[in-house]
């Protein structure tokens, strides 16, 4: 990890603009299994269904006919996930921004994976990029595992358990370690493999 940090330089991980947990997860559902441009196009059409709003509120979404949401480009499964997300926001399963900021990472994961279509990886991305949590290691992420394989010169892809066990030594800065592992994977993907390459 020390060599990787020297090669790449300072960590440039930045928190994204603050959004409510509801908006962040609704956007995450839109992006699942889609290219960025396609997801953005669907989101624009979806938001346009709610004139005067920057983004719909949970009660706005539940009040809208599911077929209208589908016509904006969401699959049936994603419409069901969005409606469950809205219902869970209203019943308190999905905390508000103020409440979620006071919960620890484990409690957030446990609560949010109860929502249809939201898995551990999606919650971990929320923890890293929206909440700015410093000690998140998303071991199910292909980029993190592949970056680990490259950085530590492993012949085979490590299992999530192996990365988790090794990552204990990076506490309490595993989010930063994750960022460097992503960069290691990106360097190879972009044809910049080898020591001394900075990004």
Structure description:
- The protein has helices spanning 2-8, 21-31, 36-48, 58-63, 66-71, 76-91, 97-100, 105-112, 120-130, 142-151, 160-167, 174-189.
- The protein is an all-alpha fold and 199 residues long.
- It folds into 2 domains: 2-13 and 138-189, Endonuclease Iii, domain 2 (Orthogonal Bundle); 21-130, Orthogonal Bundle (Endonuclease III, domain 1), CATH 1.10.340.
- The longest helix is centred in the middle third of the chain and has 16 residues, at 76-91.
- Residues 194-199 have low confidence and may be disordered.
Beta-strand residue percentage:
under 5%
Helix-strand pattern: HHHHHHHHHHHH
CATH topology of the largest domain, which one?
A: Endonuclease III, domain 1
How many structurally independent domains?
2
Helix share bin: 55-70%
The gyration radius over C-alpha positions equals 19 Å
Largest sheet: none
CATH class of the largest domain: Mainly Alpha
Number of strands: 0
Outline the low-pLDDT stretches. 194-199
Oligomer: single chain
- The end-to-end distance, rounded to whole angstroms, is 16 Å
List the SSEs and their pairings.
Layout: H1 2-8, H2 21-31, H3 36-48, H4 58-63, H5 66-71, H6 76-91, H7 97-100, H8 105-112, H9 120-130, H10 142-151, H11 160-167, H12 174-189
Record keyword descriptors for this entry.
2 domains; Endonuclease III, domain 1; elongated; Endonuclease Iii, domain 2; 199 residues; disordered C terminus; mainly alpha
Give a concise summary.
This protein has 199 residues and is mainly α. It is 58% helix and 0% strand. The chain is elongated.
């Amino acid at each position: 990890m020390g060599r990787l940090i020297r090669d790449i330089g300072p960590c440039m991980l930045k928190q994204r603009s603050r959004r409510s947990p509801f908006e962040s997860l609704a956007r995450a559902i839109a992006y699942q299994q889609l290219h960025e441009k396609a997801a953005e196009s669907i989101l624009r059409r979806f938001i346009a269904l709610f004139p005067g709003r920057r983004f719909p509120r949970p009660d706005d979404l539940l009040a809208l006919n599911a077929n209208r949401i589908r016509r904006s480009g969401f699959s049936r499964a994603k419409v069901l996930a969005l409606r469950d997300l809205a219902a869970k926001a209203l019943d308190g399963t999905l905390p508000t921004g103020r409440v979620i900021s006071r919960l620890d990472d484990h409690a957030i994961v446990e609560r949010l994976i109860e929502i249809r279509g939201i898995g551990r990886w999606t919650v971990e991305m929320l923890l890293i990029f929206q909440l700015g949590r410093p000690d998140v290691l998303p071991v199910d992420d292909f980029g993190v595992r592949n970056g680990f394989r490259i950085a530590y010169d492993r012949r085979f892809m490590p299992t999530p358990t192996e990365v988790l066990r090794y990552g204990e030594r990076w506490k309490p800065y595993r989010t930063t370690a994750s960022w460097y592992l992503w960069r290691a994977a990106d360097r190879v993907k972009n044809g910049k493999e080898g020591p001394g390459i900075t990004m």
